[in-house]
Records
---
Amino acid sequence: MVGKILREQKMREIKLKTLVVLCSMVLGLLSSTIVIAQPGEETDTVNAQPVSTTDASDNSFSSELNSGLLSIGNPLSLGALYSANYGAMMEAKGGRLLTTNNAVGLGLQLGANQRRIDGSWGWAIFPQQRVKLSAENLTQYTQFKFNAGDTNRWVSQNAIGGAYQYLIPNSFLNDLNAGAYYSGATNVSLPSRSSGAATNDRHIAGAKDANGSVGADITPAYGSLFGLQVGYDSVKYAMRYEHDRNDSGMGLNLSWQQLITKQLKFNMSASELAIYENYQAGLSWMFNLQNSDYFEVGASAMRLINKHSIANDTLGLLSLSYGWHANSQNSADGYSLADQDSHDNLSQWATMPAVYMDQTLAIRDQRNR
């Protein structure tokens, strides 16, 4: 018995050392590419002639590389993210069970032009019901197109959100869910710029966004999970010079997960809100190891189409993850799409925040006189 325990401890030490080496390689790659800008720093490009007030669509491409780690009994991941709009970033997230019914999750992103921190608390209140509360701060160094010239400024945005899930085990209707969030981006006052007899008054208007949704997930066949959420968005920008850019309306999110084999999963989703449209697709491969450990490789792509003079974005994702006893549903047989109990994957559920804003909601606001 003692020998078996020592062998297991030795295996864990080897795994941990391997993961540390992998993280060092990722950090080394990032250190050669990332230059951190200072908060509050402004970069202007002055044009001799006024430019159009309509921003062109950004058809850029970006990719994300996530490597995975796992602390004992809880998921933890470390990765590298690249965005054509915001450059290279380091990313880390993890979850931990506090008690049988409580778990917390934390996410971090750090790059030259984007910084994010989010935290979540998940609570299994009953065997088939659980709730989650999340908070997030997102700060981005964004370009704004004014008539007097392009300007880059840091804009910060805070958000809070909550989610509820009612699980229905062994049923066509897998779960009912509801969620809500509220976000607010800061306003930035800029000095006016003069060119000849014309003066361009400049202001960056942050938005308040309130969203609520209800939905359901169904399992029409073995290995398939379809999701539908219907929501309502209300977005209000703090304009100073231009007419109001407020917007509101119904939103829709559709998702589909499909097991091609027990170790190969396909997923896709499409959503349309008052603020943007989001389209995603991806594949994931799972390799099961001894003692319920697992290794996972994933690849996906995302297209983000904004509606309020904010640049569009295209992203690609390659992820690597590793787990020690973290996911009760990731059995030796492979993936299981539908949780049967509110305690299933509770720490992993806590790593998926109830609010995750893809971008800061802030737009150019100007007046010529």
---
Amino acid sequence: MQLPSVILCVLIVVTIALAQVPQDFGQLLRAHTQCQSTARISPTAININELSSGNFPNDPAFKRHLLCINKALGIQDTNGNLQINAITRLATAMAPPGTNRNTIQEVVNRCAVQRRDEEETAYQTDSCLLQARRLYSGK
């Protein structure tokens, strides 16, 4: 897979995992473009089938990229700390209409866990949210 294809695949998966509402897509695209220059994701580390199922590559560059995007979108602050209100809004937006508020809170409680470092926090949180989205949709 060539690097431009990898970038597109990562953008699609991150969009699915993080985009709150359509107007946020522009913000996400800007963040992705900015973060791409610093993360240096290896094309061999990316498998689109794994990404779309919520199984992210255990790749330091991929983790840096997710952290950078999370910070740009306010999911993590500048110190890498999770922002629970932003994650709750995100989980609510990702859920199908009519999803019980308690179910959403359970997802937030399960996914919004501060890890040993900020990159691992971004990686685990985003992976968990994408997997929760798949559970919401039954896929």
